């Protein structure tokens, strides 16, 4: 899909469709008012007849509007103006694209970017339009013998520019939106693939291919390499699987080589049975999404490379499959991590923190990073705490945390800070090792983060628990591509400040 911005005389627009908004009750936006004026009150007459009152997310498609050159005019309900906010804006944009895809329109002049959304600038509105437009056309049918539905024909979105002084900001938002959507597509595709296809080796192959495309440096460590490095925790997870573990490293260099990078570490459990501590059978198919942290790292690096950001970023993916067999780790096993710390495995279904702890140690020893952010579908407890709207955020550096929170707000890919207090650390005490891999039933998201914090004491570190936000269940089951928008904005903002 192509996105452009330019000044547009709406009544002269010779395209397939125009989109304008209507507030409740029957109040035209400025763009709609202009069309109404040119069409001699045609829109207001329809509203007065009761065809539409502006109810949120309602749509009304019009053809042959008098004195308007566009083939179609789509009216989109915005709800009450007093309560119009980022949520209702996003819902209206989504409703507009859904309605457009039910037509044969190949292009649209999308006149919702000029709406006032409390506290948000035009850059935010443009970014959301691009992301939501691309989300509306995403399909994953590559594993089906025939496509279930026709691909949308909408190919071009024109965002009219009212104030020419906004041009640099709008073009920057367009660029970031297009790159972010590209990265989200990568993350979604990987997450949606079947686990017999998306194995640790497949992730490594994708990283190698991506390195060739964007001229990155890619290193893939095999199990024998991890053994030499002492990654006993990561290898303990893959012992029960016929799929060998991989440690995948991608380096993007947008600055001078000596500049310290930001390191993204993504959990890459390509399927999680729970191991010997096996999960219940219902919904276990969704455990193919347990590599969503890894997918978000590859997606974010794609966006960064597309934007050519002047920043150094390293992506590290500990990839493994957690399966039960005679070789699998048992509850009660004690393993030695790359850091030298020993871990008592009390539950083999708490495997994500085991692969991450060795990857976090590797990141610090190899790269002396400016900051480390790990991304993982780590705990069901985080879903219980925050549901599916917010990503759980922990860390040892308040400045880093606040920057990530702001990036989430800026992209509407929000996170929420949870505590990382010393009082929780004692729950990880073990009688037989330096630390246990679980802390009991209560505060599971916190104790998981506490576990990771033991391996990140010497760096600026943040942890994103995306268990509730990386995928949707139910009828619309599938990967969401989160938190690629948050991470991309975080890195873009960092690049702007450098």
Task: Tell me the Rg in angstroms.
Answer: 25 Å
Q: Uncertain spans, ≥5 residues at pLDDT below 50?
A: none
Q: What's the rounded overall pLDDT mean?
A: 96
| Major beta sheet summary | 9 strands, mixed
**How would you classify the helix and strand content by structural class?**
alpha/beta
Distance between the termini: 31 Å
Report the principal-axis shape: elongated
Report the portion of residues in β strands.
15-25%
What percent of residues adopt helix (DSSP H or I)? 25-40%
Overall number of strands: 21
DSSP helical segment count: 15
Q: What is the secondary structure topology, with strand pairs?
A:
Elements: E1 2-6, E2 18-24, E3 27-28, H1 30-38, H2 42-48, E4 59-63, E5 72-80, H3 86-100, E6 107-110, H4 122-137, E7 156-160, H5 167-192, H6 200-214, E8 217-221, H7 223-229, H8 232-238, E9 246-253, E10 262-266, E11 268-272, H9 292-307, E12 312-322, E13 334-336, E14 342-344, H10 352-367, E15 371-376, H11 380-386, E16 391-395, H12 398-411, E17 415-417, H13 422-425, E18 435-436, H14 444-453, E19 461-465, E20 471-472, E21 478-479, H15 484-497
Parallel strand pairs: 1-7, 2-5, 2-6, 6-7, 10-12, 10-15, 11-12, 14-18, 15-19, 16-17
Antiparallel strand pairs: 2-3, 4-5, 8-9, 9-12, 13-14, 16-19, 20-21
